[in-house]
Amino acid sequence: MDWDDLRFFLAVARKGSIRAASSTLAVNHSTVLRRINAFEKKLNVRLFERLPTGYVLTPTGEEMVDSAQRIEDEVVKLDRQVIGRDAQLSGALRVTMPLILATHLLAPELAAFAVAYPGIQLEIAASDEEFNLKKREADVAIRITPNPPEYLVGRKILTPAKGIYASHNYLKQHDPENHPEKMNWLGWEDSVADPQWIKDSAFPSSPVRHQADSLLVQLETAKADMGLTMLPCFLADPIETLQRLHLIPPSAASCGDLWILTHQDLRSTARVKAFMNFMLEVFDRHRDLLEGRKRSFQDVLPLNPISF
Question: Were both Cys, which of 131, 225, 235, 264 would link to 137 (CB 3.0–4.6 Å)?
Answer without folding.
Answer: 131
